[in-house]
Specification:
The chain contains 5 helices and 15 strands. The protein has 286 residues and is an alpha+beta fold. The protein has 2 domains: 66 residues; 211 residues, no CATH class. The strands form 3 sheets. Strands 4, 5, 6, 7, 13, 14 and 15 form a 7-stranded antiparallel beta sheet that branches. Helix 1 runs antiparallel to helix 2. The longest helix has 27 residues.
Length: 286
């Protein structure tokens, strides 16, 4: 519908040029000065049409971009295929460093192109993280903004997203917990950067991860050693910037409510373990 309306605008512009040309001809070409009025009018209309076509040809790239645009948006549902549990061989962080099959909950969202042309070089950037505390939402200063990876292909930038199609992008995961196997550095309420770095280096203040206190890990392009891409229990707002080289960026705020416990059943996990919803989606930065 948008393309039809814009095409109608161009057609009206052409008709307006013809109408102005007709008025000029009637005003400045009286009958006594040009016996063959039909020839004169045809000449003026042809000139107007030539000028209009030359204008369109000169601005064809701008007009094409005006008529044909990708429209990006994000959607997520707490159900397969967006969110699901699979078994995977993952290295265990144990003394013997063995690998075994573990259940993993994967959380993905869909990037949709509802426009009428390809979206080129599409990227998803995790820009900002906030955590809810007693006095409201507080920005996590230790969070490192990074791009998220596209599902299956593991690319940071998707070359093409065709019109009226969608593609999954990885958000994060929660691994099955064996008691005493994992540790998590407590990064909350610590504005002393030097102390924070010492804590991360010495691993002296680790909090054990249990079935009642799972770890949510964002699937960023390059996981930092500071573990700032991981979530403890709490409510979080994650700001995503979805952009393409030929489209305006879309700002999406996800609310991630990490309740903590691990559940073997997906229905219980997505209700009582971790919940994700989109609370804002706009082309204006919040």
């Amino acid at each position: 519908m948008k393309v039809l309306s814009k095409t109608a605008i161009l057609l009206l512009a052409f008709l307006a040029i013809l109408a102005i040309s007709y008025w000029l001809a009637r005003t400045y070409l009286p009958i006594y000065s040009c016996p063959d009025q039909a020839t004169a009018m045809a000449t003026i209309f042809l000139g107007a049409a030539t000028i209009f076509l030359a204008f369109v040809a000169a601005l064809q790239d701008f007009i094409r971009g005006w008529l044909l645009k990708p429209e990006l948006s994000v959607c997520i549902e707490m159900d397969a295929p967006d969110c699901t549990k699979i078994s995977s061989l993952l290295p265990s962080i144990t003394k013997d460093k063995t690998s075994k099959s573990k259940d993993v909950y994967y959380f993905r969202f869909r990037v949709i192109n509802s426009g009428n042309t390809d979206a080129n070089n599409v990227e998803v950037y995790a820009s900002e993280l906030k955590k809810y505390k007693d006095n409201g939402w507080e920005k996590k200063k230790t969070f490192l903004p990074m791009k998220l990876a596209w599902s299956h292909v593991r690319l940071r930038s998707l070359p093409i997203l065709s019109p009226h199609t969608e593609r999954h992008c990885e958000l994060g995961s929660i691994e099955q917990v064996d008691e005493g196997e994992y540790t998590l550095i407590d990064l909350d309420d610590n504005d002393d950067e030097a102390r924070l770095m010492r804590k991360m280096a010495k691993m002296s203040a680790d909090e054990p991860i249990t079935r009642e206190n799972t770890l949510f890990e964002l699937d960023v392009e390059s996981p930092p050693r500071s573990y700032t891409h991981t979530f403890q229990k709490g409510r979080y707002h994650l700001l995503l910037v979805v952009s393409a080289s030929n489209a305006k960026p879309v700002y999406v705020t996800l609310e991630i409510n990490h309740l903590g416990p691990w559940f073997d059943k997906e229905s219980e996990m997505f209700q009582n373990g971790l919940r994700i919803q989109i609370i804002q989606q706009s082309k204006d930065r919040p």
